[in-house]
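INPUT
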Amino acid sequence: MCQINQIYNKLLDHYGAQGWWPLLDYQKNINDDGLWGYHPDDYSLPKTKIQRFEVCIGAILTQNTAWKNVQKALINLKKLNAIKPDTLKKIDIEKLKKAITPAGYYNQKSKKLKIFADFFISVKNKIPTRNDLLSVWGIGPETADSILLYAYKKPEFVVDAYTKRMFTNLGLIDDNYNYEKIKSFFEENLKNDIIVYQEYHALIVKHAGIYYRKKTNTCKDPLLS
DNA sequence: AACCAGGACGTGA
DNA sequence: TCACGTCATGGT
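OUTPUT
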């Protein structure tokens, strides 16, 4: 128990709870980015199967994509009533591509969404394992962990590009660490708690999005160093 | 006007 | 395993 816990406390103290997803039923609030802030401190979500599905879809759509663009795609899908496994499964692929265009990679992502809809229906009310998710085309380690952590509330730490960049820059992990090794590093040093996992990942994205963009990567971290 | 964003896949060493 | 090219829109 060392610096990564102190960093977590600093980030949480500085930025507050992030309240990431689901989005669609909670988009009334405005946060300090001008984006929609959703439901900080409400860890009862997702409450319904549809909300859970929305989290999964959002996790796929946000692959290497700014969340702001994903918001538009999700709202488009909602208008088509496509935040539903059955509807998404049946929807015309060209219509789907058009709806998710703002989120980019619409050829790949439309295919990924279709395949995921099938998978989501097939698991019924069971909780998929990490390997179940990784076996689905279009779901890699980060998306699998995001789905487990935010949709199914399982304690899987989510590692993204910012996490690696920020913590190598702070000197806490080695540059040659792969995804699984970074994930283990956090899970072995943090309390096994989905609230901590959920907030920490979101806070890293928040903080690194300001101070650890590729261009400003060499800048000194005003909060943590 | 390049550069990058809440990555994953296919290919070739 | 690991490095590299590819996918695509929209903000800065």
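end of record. The first helix of chain A runs from residue 3 to 15.
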